[in-house]
Design brief:
GTP Cyclohydrolase I, domain 2; 2 domains; binds guanosine-5'-triphosphate; binds zinc ion
């Protein structure tokens, strides 16, 4: 993971913001147990929000041509991810399922998971993330279609707010053949284990 290098905010300013939040919560940031906390929090943020330093399309530009005439659906399912909601900066924990219908080019499968991570490691709204993943694959790989389903739980509604545990949000973005052809879409949903709307 590359070190996070913000453009206009210094590490010291970011650490000071953490001290401010600690004081706001009623803590004393100078007590021994908290002395290293701002440094740790800023380091953690550098990891959680490293997606801003990445161009996800870059992962999809190295493709394999002519993989033995393979022209059927490719599906990578259960891609675990961690993200944060842009409303509360609270974790969004879930799984993404990504499918595409290659024309002449296929991509290394790990790259699909890297694309998911690059978008997840930003402040997100689930609908936006789902659409960004699908559009990035469509634009860079130019397959006959892309399908993305994201199933995630939002800690902003499990650990605070309405406190509804066990609730997950499911979003999907279908492009090309997956949008236009019900059978292609059904085959994808079957692959990822969603039948008639239930998993
Ligand atoms: N559609 C969508 N909503 C989200 C997502 N993440 C968080 N939210 C919702 O964003 C909304 C923000 O609502 P506000 O009323 O502005 O915030 P709030 O006062 O903290 O609301 P509560 O969460 O209901 O306590 C909440 O309903 C969240 O559940 C997301 O990825 N997609
Ligand atoms: Zn939220």
């Amino acid at each position: 993971m590359s070190e996070h290098e913000p453009t206009e905010v210094t590490r010291e300013q970011a650490e000071e913001a953490v001290r401010t939040l600690l004081r706001w919560a009623g803590e004393d940031p100078t007590r021994e147990g908290l002395l290293d906390t701002p440094r740790r929090v800023v380091k953690a943020y550098g990891d959680w929000f490293s997606g801003y330093q990445i161009d996800p399309g870059e992962y999809l530009r190295r493709t394999f041509e002519e993989v033995a005439g393979y022209d059927e659906m490719v599906v990578l399912r259960d891609i675990e991810f961690e993200s944060h909601c842009e409303h509360h900066m609270a974790p969004i924990i879930g799984r993404a399922h990504v499918g595409y219908l290659p024309t002449s080019r296929v991509v290394g499968i790990s790259k699909l998971a890297r694309v998911v991570d690059a978008f997840a490691r930003r402040f997100q709204v689930q609908e936006k993330m789902t659409s960004e993943i699908a559009r990035c694959i469509q634009e860079n790989l130019q397959p006959a279609g892309v399908a993305v389903v994201v199933d995630a739980s939002h800690e902003c509604m499990t650990t605070r707010g309405v406190h509804k545990r066990g609730v997950s949000m499911v979003t999907s973005q279908m492009l090309g053949a997956f949008r236009e052809d019900a059978r292609t879409r059904a085959e994808f949903l079957d692959f990822i284990g969603i039948h008639g709307g239930r998993r």
